[in-house]
Design goal:
The chain is mostly helical. It is built from 6 helices and 2 strands, in the order H-H-E-H-H-H-E-H.
Length: 165
């Protein structure tokens, strides 16, 4: 047996080794956790600034209502209301309240729901109004953050052993 000091140092080294095994870095590699979180913060900040500079507006007509109003009747003259888009879901609900076992009622309901969702999504338009230098800075932050996060998954060089005293 060695001296109490040597036993203490040996015990500390055992705890340090156990800690390194339990707390592996990002992706199970040694180290890299700090680098991963720096990259995560950088990418998240860049993504926030990028999305913050985008405005969302809606168009006056969607894909289906635009087709009904301008493309189908009277050479482009508006002839129908967008309320006609609610007809399938309305008829489907009537059918389902009459008899919920009818497959035609469920089909009408799902077609009507799909028509409404497609119409809403087709009216959305994204507009970005930012300087080119700001856009490049935001994209650079996102790219640098992703690069740092990916780099943190690589194995780091082994630390040189400390000489025993």
């Amino acid at each position: 047996m060695g001296s109490p000091r040597q036993e203490l140092e040996h015990g500390i080294e055992d705890v340090r080794q156990m800690h390194e095994e339990l707390v592996a870095g990002a992706g199970g590699t040694p180290g890299g956790t700090r680098l991963f979180f720096i990259g995560l913060v950088l990418a998240a900040a860049g993504l926030y600034f990028f999305l913050d500079s985008v405005r969302v507006v809606t168009l006056p007509a969607g894909m289906l209502s635009g087709f009904l109003n301008h493309g189908m009747f009277h050479n482009g003259a508006p002839t129908t209301s967008t309320g006609i888009l609610f007809a399938p879901i309305f008829l489907g609900l009537i059918t389902l309240f009459y008899d919920a076992r009818l497959k035609s009622g469920w089909a009408l309901f799902y077609v009507g729901l799909s028509v409404i969702v497609i119409e809403i999504l087709s009216r959305i338009q994204f507009m970005m109004n930012t300087k080119t230098s700001h856009l490049l800075l935001m994209l650079g932050m996102i790219a640098a953050g992703i690069g740092l996060m990916l780099r943190s998954f690589r194995e780091t060089a082994a630390k040189p052993e400390r000489p025993e005293a």
